[in-house]
Amino acid sequence: MLVPKAHIREESDIKKEQWIEYHEINKKAIDYMKAKYKNPMIFINAPQDQSVHHFHKHFLPGCFGEHGVDNALRNFLNSKGIKAFSR
Question: N vs C: which end of the chain shows fewer Cβ within 10 Å?
Fold first, then answer.
C-alpha cells in the first residue's frame, strides 16, 4: 500500500514539488508487483468506499478471480501463514 505522510484526499491533491517523488515511488511499486506477480491488482478506492475520505493506493497480488478481494486476500494471507482478520 502506498500512503502519503500528509493527509490528502485524492491523488490529484499531491503538490507539484512532490509529484516527481510520488511518481518514482509509484513506478517502483508497480515494477516490483509486475515482476513478482503475473497480474497484480493496483487500485485506489473510490471516496464512497472509504469511511474517511483519504488517498492511498493498493498494490495486491493478482489472485482474486471470482472470489472477490476480501476472500482472495484472506486466502492468500492464510496460504503464507498469516492470520487474516474477519470483518
Answer: C
For residue 55, count CB atoms less than 10 angstroms from its CB and return exposed for 0-12, middle for 13-18, buried for 19 or more. buried
pLDDT tens digits, 18-55: 999 999 999 999 999 889 887 788 888 777 777 778 88
Name the grid cell of 35.
515482476
What residues form DSSP beta bridges with 58? 43
Residues 84, 74 contacting (CB under 8 angstroms): yes
- Longest CA–CA separation in the chain, Å: 41
The pTM assigned to this predicted structure is 0.61
Whole-number Cα distances in Å, 59 to 2, 15, 16, 47, 77? 8, 22, 23, 18, 14
